[in-house]
Design brief:
about 70 residues, mainly alpha, about 60% helix, single chain
Length: about 70
């Protein structure tokens, strides 16, 4: 049986808010998250969280990398 990961929706919401607040352009950060999720979806399945949806994984990764300005820069 596949292992299911429980995702805390409050944590996801907090991370999304951090990303949007750190970005100067809400549309641009939304597109960046969507593009990363799309890329991850088609990459090799060599990651541990196979049951986590690509969009959630992209949000988690990008919010962890929020301290790196190249993600949020224009």
């Amino acid at each position: 049986m596949a292992k299911r990961y429980s995702i805390d929706s409050a944590q996801v919401t907090r991370r999304v808010e951090e990303l949007v607040n750190a970005s100067s352009n809400r549309y641009r950060i939304t597109v960046q998250v969507a593009n990363r999720a799309k890329l991850r979806r088609y990459e090799d399945d060599d990651y541990d969280d196979r049951m986590m949806k690509p969009i959630l994984r992209a949000i988690m990764e990008m919010s962890d990398e929020i301290s790196q300005p190249e993600i949020l820069s224009d």
